[in-house]
Design brief:
Elements lengths: L1 H4 L20 E5 L14 E3 L12 E5 L2 E7 L11 E7 L7 E10 L6 E7 L5 E9 L2 E5 L3 E5 L5 E7 L6 H6 L4 E8 L13 E10 L6 H6 L6 E2 L10 E8 L3 E8 L5 E10 L2 E8 L6 E9 L2 E9 L2
Antiparallel strand pairs: 1-3, 2-13, 3-6, 4-5, 5-13, 6-12, 7-11, 7-13, 8-9, 8-10, 8-12, 14-15, 15-18, 16-17, 16-19, 19-20
Length: 311
């Protein structure tokens, strides 16, 4: 995975103030990748403190409610994690939910096989680590808290959060949501922390994997593997919704909306676009409630999905 990590060029973006229920004053830790968002990485998103692709002097994590962050030399450069640099995370006497978040340029759309993975060195065993995906523009739209057990101390272990835990109504409620923020909290039940060694963790290899296989070539180039039309969000909607799609190469693309009689009611895109991820906004103010189809054609590839307008 370290070889893949060195090709990372875009896992973290501009950060906004965290407005989840647990957040208070947010501080920024100066630890942003290059500004060229045209090189977005196909899933999985892999972030490692050793990558040379990131300008660490300009990079930003957001800590909240008493967490303290720093990029430091790996204090346990063992077989479990030979990275030269890792993230140090300390709970320093703020709130029990003192943690941090980072934001991505690539949308993390959930699938049944989605996983988040993290390499962790913990001073204590028998505690839990929390991960939550959010929308930066609407943090109330999130996956809810998911927990992974830390069962050993004093060594590097890989934790995995499998989003299949959300299957059922909870999963259906967030399918298609354009998540672009990851929130991480260690030992939520362990109190406020005192800033000492028992409340100091080391983290590395942040990975979000949507479950689709990705070739090394495409990770390197950052170009989507194939044409992909995402589910609109929000859905149902009134009257505005967002549609995102990806192109593996430059091509003429049309994105159109049809009613159930097959009549075209809107043309959202009709132009030649570069390879990468694109977004279109659909304003259905002039349409009546009902189910509609939206259709993407790029080259010889055609994909169609349904959306629901409720007024």
């Amino acid at each position: 995975m370290k070889k893949l990590v060195t090709n990372l060029q875009k896992v973290l973006g501009l950060c906004l103030v965290l407005t989840v229920s647990m957040a208070g004053v947010v501080h920024s830790q100066d630890i942003i990748p290059p500004d060229d968002v045209a090189d977005l990485q196909e899933m999985p998103l892999i972030f490692n403190m050793d990558t040379d692709a990131v300008d660490w002097e300009g990079f930003t994590f957001h800590d909240f409610e008493g967490a303290a962050l720093a990029r430091i030399a790996n204090p346990d450069q063992s077989e479990g994690n030979p990275s030269d640099f890792v993230l140090q995370y300390i709970k320093a006497g703020g709130q029990p939910w003192a943690g941090f978040f980072y934001e991505t340029d690539e949308i993390m759309e959930l699938t049944e096989d989605s996983e988040f993975r993290l390499n962790v060195w913990s001073p204590r065993a028998d505690i839990q680590a929390l991960v939550k995906l959010e929308m930066r523009t609407a943090p109330d739209v999130n996956t809810g808290d998911l927990f992974a057990d830390i069962t050993v101390s004093g060594e590097w272990v890989e934790l995995t959060w499998n989003f299949s835990e959300l299957m059922g109504e909870d999963f259906d409620a967030v399918v298609g949501a354009p998540f672009d923020r990851v929130v991480i909290i260690m030992d939520l039940d362990g109190g406020t922390g005192d800033g000492g060694s028992n409340f100091t963790w080391y983290l590395d290899d942040f990975t979000y994997d949507d479950g689709d296989a990705v070739s090394t070539e495409n990770i390197t180039s950052g170009i989507p593997q194939s044409v992909k039309l995402n589910q609109n969000y929000p859905n149902p909607f009134n009257p505005n919704t967002t549609i995102q799609f990806s192109l593996p190469e430059s091509s003429h693309a049309t994105l159109e909306v049809y009613n159930m009689l097959g009549q075209r009611v809107a043309t959202l895109v009709n132009e030649t676009l570069t390879a990468g991820t694109h977004t279109a906004n659909f304003d259905a103010s002039d349409l009546s409630s009902g189910v509609y189809l939206y259709r993407l054609q790029a080259g010889n590839e055609v994909q169609t999905r349904k959306l629901t307008l409720v007024k």
